[in-house]
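Let us practice reading a record.
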Amino acid sequence: MALSTLLHIKPPPPQFPLLKPHPSSFPILPAKTPIPIQNPTKPLKIHFTMQRPSHASTTIHSAVSDAVTLIQSSPATWQSAILCNLLIFVLGSPILVSGLSLSGIAAAFLLGTLTWRAFGPPGFLLVATYFVIGTVVTKVRMAQKEAEGVAEKRKGRRGPGSVIGSSTAGCICAFLTIFLVGGKAYSRLWQLGFVASFCTKLSDTVSSEVGKAYGKTTYLVTTLKVVPRGTEGAVSLEGTLAGLLASVLLAFVGCLIGQINGPEAVICVIASQIANVGESIIGAALQDKEGFRWLNNDAVNVINISMGSIFAVLMQQALLQNLRM
């Protein structure tokens, strides 16, 4: 056995020759240009450049701003009336199509523009309330009315003749207001006539449609004889009560939106009921009779709402005279 093993002496590690690197092994990098350091005592300035809006976006913003200003103009102008009607008619087109024909919508647009110009948003809201209630009640029991032959034509979608016939008195009051006929002292009177005309027409529409749908017994107003439902000049208890409630409701709406006051609302309701009785008498005595073939429903509507408007104005004048005495 070797002596180194016995003495636990490890042999020295083997020696390797040192390797010198070749000069081509590491590329020599070019010296970099020193980066100048800004003076730390000077504050660092950061410049932001705001991008100007494009010409198209500026034009759109200006147009929207002008439109909003036009809509809010008070008193209303023809431009604001046309613009507001256009917006409302586009948004409310589903309701309009359900209650009016296309030519009826065109006539209603003219009515709405005139109403907005004369009485502003409150007057327009009154007419819109009349239209919605009238359209809904016309659709009540439509199948039954069609089977009995007493339903309105075109599934209750009214045409321009019906629109004009229902709004003639209101349009006259609107023109009288716009052109200040009688001065500002009479403007309140024309406004009363406007509200009374639509209270009269709504009462007539509701009483007729409810009477045709639910009237158990209908009487001819001139003779009180029992006649079939839908007969011209016929009235029923159910229809009469419904018509009265409708005129009260619309007069109440007119009072809420400031078109009329409390006593004027009562005048509108009374005038509407008197006018409706007169309309029933005309329908029973003259409509569809020899020599009065021209007296169709639209013509009777003009007479009816004109009576309601005139009665309201005369009652208001009589009331004022009594208060002054």
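A brief commentary: DSSP finds eleven helices and three strands in the chain.
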